[in-house]
Design a protein that fits this description.
With 236 residues, the protein is α/β, with parallel strands linked by helices. It has eight helices and nine strands. The chain has two domains: 1-159, Acetylglutamate kinase-like (Carbamate kinase, 3-Layer(aba) Sandwich); 161-189 and 216-236, no CATH class. Helix content is 36%, strand content 18%. Strand 1, helix 1 (26-41) and strand 2 form a beta-alpha-beta unit. Keywords: ATP-binding, Cytoplasm, Kinase, Nucleotide-binding, Pyrimidine biosynthesis, Transferase.
């Protein structure tokens, strides 16, 4: 039996690049979808918030000096493209997915409507939340915290390139050790940047735990959902 009935999975756009410089790596997105499919087969309801860094990175040079709100809207549109790619890959792998956007683009994706999202999850469909919060100046981390709280997720799972939260950067400090669990307050005191400050505060205030793990470790998502000691659990 899974440890969680409903999860919010935060995927960065960069995670979709694989080893490519930008864009979507086909083998990488298929592997991620299969990992998600494995946990849905366990009976876990999965919602996904996806970033747009893999696409926006390609135009970021042109965004230098650009109005911040305009640049943020461009980033939101990039997440819609990623969400469509993720949903289509899910369809090809035999899953049923729905994309819900915080920005109205009704010819392409559904608008985000909370009761509808809850209905889809209860029906066993994967729900992909696109366009962040729909507002500039907020990150997709904040969107993940917000949507996680709204849909009653039991945990926010942040999929990264590193297998948890460490005392220091493990890529540069060989003595760095991984925290198995850590409290919100301790993470703040140690300035461990698990999520951005707004997202982190929202999770803490809503008593919504966060699990940071590596999406690049085979089977890691399933181990997290089964309650095993994978990555780092941040809790009240």
């Amino acid at each position: 039996m899974p440890a969680y009935k409903r999860i919010l999975l935060k995927l960065s756009g960069e995670a979709l690049m694989g080893d490519d410089a930008y864009g979507i790596n086909r083998a990488t997105i298929v592997r991620m979808v299969r990992e998600i499919q494995d946990v849905t087969r366990l009976g876990c309801e999965v919602a996904v918030v996806i970033g747009g860094g893999n696409i926006f990175r390609g135009v970021a040079g042109g965004a230098v000096g650009m109005d911040r709100a305009t640049a943020d809207y461009m980033g939101m549109l990039a997440t819609v493209m990623n969400a469509l790619a993720l949903a289509d890959t899910m369809r090809q792998e035999g899953m049923t997915a729905r994309v819900m956007s915080a920005i109205a683009i009704e010819q392409v994706v559904e608008p985000y409507v909370r009761p509808k999202a809850l209905q889809y999850l209860e029906e066993g469909k994967a729900v992909i939340f696109a366009a962040g919060t729909g507002n500039p100046f907020f990150t997709t981390d904040t969107a993940a915290a917000l949507r996680g709280a709204e849909i009653g997720a039991e945990i926010v799972l942040k999929a990264t390139k590193v297998d948890g939260v460490y005392t220091a950067d493990p890529r540069t400090d060989r003595s760095a050790t991984r925290y198995s669990t850590i409290s919100f307050d301790e993470a703040i005191a140690r300035n461990l940047q698990v999520l951005d400050a707004t997202a982190f505060a929202l999770c803490r205030d809503q008593n919504l735990p966060i699990r940071v793990f590596s999406i690049f470790k085979a089977g890691a998502l399933e181990r997290v959902v089964m309650g095993e000691d994978e990555g780092t659990l941040v809790h009240v």
